[in-house]
Automatic annotation (TrEMBL):
GO terms for biological process: oligosaccharide catabolic process. CDD domains: AmyAc_OligoGlu_TS. This is Alpha-glucosidase. One of its GO terms (molecular function) is alpha-amylase activity. SUPFAM superfamilies: (Trans)glycosidases. It holds the Pfam family Alpha-amylase. Belongs to the glycosyl hydrolase 13 family. It comes from the Bacteria.
């Protein structure tokens, strides 16, 4: 096994240079299971990622965020962790992870891992011990075990609704076979919630952070970060929730957890960052997570949830920049991730906003329109002040896949009674090359008969036109657009962290200046628009027509300072 990277004298230069890297970074999200498969089992793995680091370098990203890569029964795609200090055997070994972190750093790319503190897997040793030890045991104190209501205890302690729909409590069976206590799970029953009032839980997670920081990770993405603390009185959710008054969401006490995590992060060389998955609709309460002694940044889901509409997007930009300013944190810009409908699909729909509750099979989609808008959105978000997230496959313009029901795995689908298609459609393995599935995702097994394993989710035949190989030779492709945009973003000092100034424009356009010399123009109207003064066009998501910017397009202009 390789040595932890932060042994004295071994901190790689990439980790310590540029302490403010996270304020402007472009962070590429790797869904390991679907990125690249090295061993031919149809599932992506860490060696697959290592073999494609050159591709990521060429794309121009600063950091990689890996979805959970730990041992897990995969009841929720790995967000049900059974060992926080190892790698899922299908993905590789701890040594593979250490090599990956090191090799990426050698290319100047940092690694961010996913930490899942709200819950763990029902197969985790702690939960198994809790079930075995029975009611009232110290082992159960790390979770939310509770007797049921009603004379026989057969009613749930509360009627809280799961984030995946349905119940949040499951009844246990006592070691002697009689019906027992209930335990809380805000997600599936395979994901019991931890009790963050328990010192073991806090200590354990602090130790897990150190374990990975010692191995050279540059940051952690904190899953379901607003949910950790529960009201121990277990009240029902009030009809009108006062600020901080929800029994399981965004409680004020949660901030203590991140203050202690920040102290740990700050004790390491190089800036190790905390990035929160904070679904808190109130912009001020959201920004409270980003106070100087808490997290560095959090995912901006407001922008991602809005429809393709100039007034809506402008309102979101203003809202989020204003919310971040008082705490001194940069905003993030996020068009998608492994939980949401791909932008090419979303922006091609009549309702182009995003909400989990509205996902349906068979929603009519104009993919040409969606692709045009996704290209425009790519440049728009890359021009906004702060850091940028790019979910794997969006750089190829992959659409959401409407998979056959029999291959679906996502618990969100099943817990909706089959109404919600779930999140598998944005998790289909990437197409790398060739004209037929698996499009280079998996290698041929050496010495085999030439057959290749089927990818764990099937890829559509139309993806032949969207492979990396096909796009690399097409300057009009999404991949070229992203490569050029990220190159320009890195080169132009005005982009990335900073402020923006809105320039006068028609209300159907988003026109703003960054620094002294870069102007973003996004046309969300229905007619071509004239461009403001400039001396050069840096990049445009659609070719200009007679010097005019077509609808659903973005151009970046250079103007003399
Ligand atoms: C986060 C993850 C999602 C997961 C959930 C429960 O929202 O992004 O994929 O299902 O947390 O861990
Ligand atoms: Mg594999």
């Amino acid at each position: 096994m390789t040595m932890p990277l932060t042994e004295p004298g071994t901190v790689p230069p990439t980790l310590v240079k540029d302490p403010l890297w996270w304020r402007s970074a472009v962070i590429y999200q790797v869904y390991v299971r679907s990125f690249a498969d090295s061993d031919g089992d149809g599932t992506g793995d860490l060696r697959g990622v290592r073999s494609r680091l050159g591709y990521l370098k060429e794309l121009g990203v600063d950091a990689l965020w890996f979805n959970p890569w730990y041992p897990s029964p995969l009841a929720d795609g790995g967000y049900d962790v059974s060992d926080y200090r190892d790698i899922h055997p299908t993905f590789g070994t701890l040594e593979d992870a250490e090599l990956l972190i090191t090799e990426a750093l050698e290319l100047g790319i940092r690694t961010i891992i996913d930490i899942v503190p709200n819950h763990l897997s029902s197969e985790h040793p702690w939960f198994r011990a809790a079930l075995a030890a029975g009611p009232g045991s110290p082992e159960r104190g790390r979770f939310w075990f509770h007797p049921g209501k009603g004379p026989n205890g057969d009613e749930m302690p509360t009627s809280w609704i799961s984030n995946f729909q349905g119940d949040t409590w499951t009844r246990t069976v006592n070691p002697d076979g009689t019906p027992g206590e209930w335990y809380l799970h805000l997600f599936t029953p395979e994901q019991p919630d931890l009790n963050w009032n328990h010192p073991d839980v806090r200590r354990e997670h602090e130790d897990i952070l150190r374990f990975w920081f010692d191995r050279g990770v540059a940051g952690v993405r904190i899953d379901s970060a607003g949910l950790l603390i529960k009201d121990p009185a277990l009240p029902e959710v009030p009809a009108e929730v006062p600020p901080g008054g929800h029994p399981t969401e965004d409680r004020d006490e949660v901030h203590d957890v991140y203050r202690s995590w920040r102290r740990i992060a700050d004790s390491y060389e190089g800036t190790r960052v905390l990035v929160g998955e904070v679904w808190v609709p109130d912009a001020q309460r959201f920004a409270a997570y980003l106070r100087p002694d808490e997290m560095h940044t959090a995912f901006n889901f407001d922008f991602m949830s809005r429809p393709w509409d100039a007034a809506e997007l402008r309102a979101s930009i203003d809202l989020m920049l204003a919310a971040h300013a008082p705490v001194g944190a940069p905003s993030t810009w996020v068009l998608s991730n492994h939980d949401v409908t791909r932008p090419v699909t979303r922006y091609g729909r009549e309702d182009s906003s995003f909400a989990f509750a509205r996902k349906r099979f068979g929603t009519p989609t104009d993919l040409d329109l969606g692709r045009r808008r996704a290209r425009a959105a790519a440049l728009l978000t890359a021009a906004l002040p702060g850091s940028l997230y790019l979910y794997q496959g969006d750089e190829l313009g992959l659409p959401e896949v409407e998979l056959p029901r029999e291959v679906l795995e996502d618990p969100m689908h099943f817990r909706s009674g089959g109404v919600d298609p779930g999140r598998d459609g944005c998790r289909v393995p990437l197409p790398w090359r060739g004209v037929a599935a698996p499009f280079g995702f998996s290698p041929e097994v050496p010495g085999g008969d030439g057959t290749v394993a089927a990818p764990w989710l099937p890829q559509p035949a139309e993806w032949a036109a969207l492979t990396v190989q096909a796009q690399e030779s097409d300057p009009a492709s999404m991949l070229w657009l992203y490569r050029q945009a990220l190159r320009i973003r890195r080169r132009e000092g005005s982009l990335g962290d900073g402020t923006l100034t809105w320039l006068p424009s028609d209300p159907t356009a988003l026109v703003f200046q960054r620094g002294d010399d870069v102007v973003n123009v996004t046309n969300l109207g229905t007619a071509p628009m004239a461009l403001p003064d400039h001396d050069r066009i840096l990049l445009s998501s659609t070719p200009l027509v007679g010097g005019m910017l077509p609808p659903d397009s973005t151009a970046w202009l250079h103007r003399p300072a």
